[in-house]
Each structure stands twice: as C-alpha cells, then as structure tokens.
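Supplementary Methods, section 5.1.

A reviewer requested that the exact input to the structure prediction be made available. We therefore reproduce it here, unchanged from the version used in the analyses.
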Amino acid sequence: MHVEANLIDITYTDTLIDDNFYSTKSFIYSMVFNKEGTYQLDKNVVFAYFNPTSNKLVKLQSKKNIVVESSVEKNTLPKSGLYNVYPKMILLDASESMLMEDYQPNRLEVIKHGVRDFLTKRKSCDIGLIAFTGEAKLKQINKPDSCYAYSLFKDISFNYFPKIGTAIGDAMWLGCHALKKTPNPILVVIGDGENNAGICPLSLAINHAKKYGIKVYTIGVGTKGLVPLGHDAQGRPMIYTNTFVDKDLKQISLQTGGKYFWAKDVAAITSILKIIFPE
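The structure derived from this sequence is encoded token-by-token as follows.
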C-alpha cells in the first residue's frame, strides 16, 4: 500500500509567558492513502531535529498504525448539477485563526458584523451564506418575514463546526453547487488563511468555478506580524505571529476573474461588498 506525504505549511508561534519567551515551529503534512487498509506507521515515520539546549540530534518516531476506511459514501463531493439556491453567495471563514484579536473583538466578529450590516440593509433577497472551518455548511440566514435575519448570525462561531482547519476548497465547491444559473454568478470568500483542510483540493475548486463561469472575489481579514490572542495567568496578552496568509485568496481571485481586497475593519468589509454586489 502506498502513502503520499506532502508538506503543506510551516507555522511559527512566539509567546511571552512570565517574562519567558517561547518559540515553536510546526510542520503540517497531508497524507494521502491510495486504498483502505491498515498502514504500519509505527516507527516508520521519523523526524529528526537539532536540540540547541542539549546540543544533540533528536528523533521523533510515530507510535501508531492507521486504519483507513473507504470514503466513497462518507466524503464524496457532489458530482453533477447546481442546487439553484441563490444567484450570489458569501463564504465566511470561521476557523480558529479567525479568533485572533488584531481586530476588535476578533477577526470573526468583525467579518460577521460587516457582512450582517451589508445584508440587512440590502433590498434584494439574492445572497446566500456559507460558513466554513474544516468543513463547509450552507447557513440559514433568513426568516419567513425577513430576507436576512440579524439574530441568525450569532451562532456562526468556531465551535459551530466539529472539524478544524480551513477548507476553502470545500466551501467553494459547495458554493458553486448552491448558486442559481445566472448570467453573472459570483462567490465571495472572506478569510485569513490558506486552504489546509477538507476534501476538495483548491485547484479543483478553482477549475470547477471556472467551468461554470463563476467569478470568485476574495477579501482578506488580518494583519501580518505579531498578533494577540487571549491572556496569560497574569492578564498579559499572549502574542502569536504569521497568522494571516492571503496567498490562496489572491490566487483564487486571479484565476477566476475576480478581484482580491484587504479589509481593515467592519466598515471596509461593508464597503467592499457594496462594490462587488451593487444594487
């Protein structure tokens, strides 16, 4: 049985706790298994690194085997036909990094407020919403007497989803299939990171959008460099770095004929959406 492993991201985290500086470096790999079965990974996956404290080379070895089951029934993507729900769609990233506090109170709340303010003042009932983390879900945001219900945005949170990560590809795939057939179908992706989860590769999602003539606009939310998230036991902000990456967002808009925007606050999100969706 064959296993294909690919390095998909390297992240750095710097934290100051009790006047002590801690720095970590994480390597994120994706593993693709060619068929179901038990894969003998115990001691067969080895990482070596140099420990500057002990001045020794240290090895990390896998300690478990992996049982892989067929995903034919559980994780297949839609194969044909559009679902004809909305002519336009907003895809909202609710992943863990969206809790970063470089925007107040955090990135996710700023996006929710900006999108909500835009939609609730809109006359046309023509835009749907998909929220995503490691998976994507079509979110109900209307009530019988209202196109866009203000209260229904409250439960969009990181805890709303069981799967972690940022599945932009899955959200785009679902968005493509939720769109009605219109002369100018549009998706808007709002988030802060790269595609690192889900079933659908980003390249496939991009090609799928191009196949249906769907323009995908993207809006980046976040700042580069040191960013606060939470507080330590003494009440001091904990600081992280490299939490905003817009490479995939720029690539999506470039390849689908859309445009990339960066939003600095709630008002900017609302203004950008008015540009993309004029009435």
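The two ends are 55 Å apart (CA to CA). These observations are discussed further in the main text.
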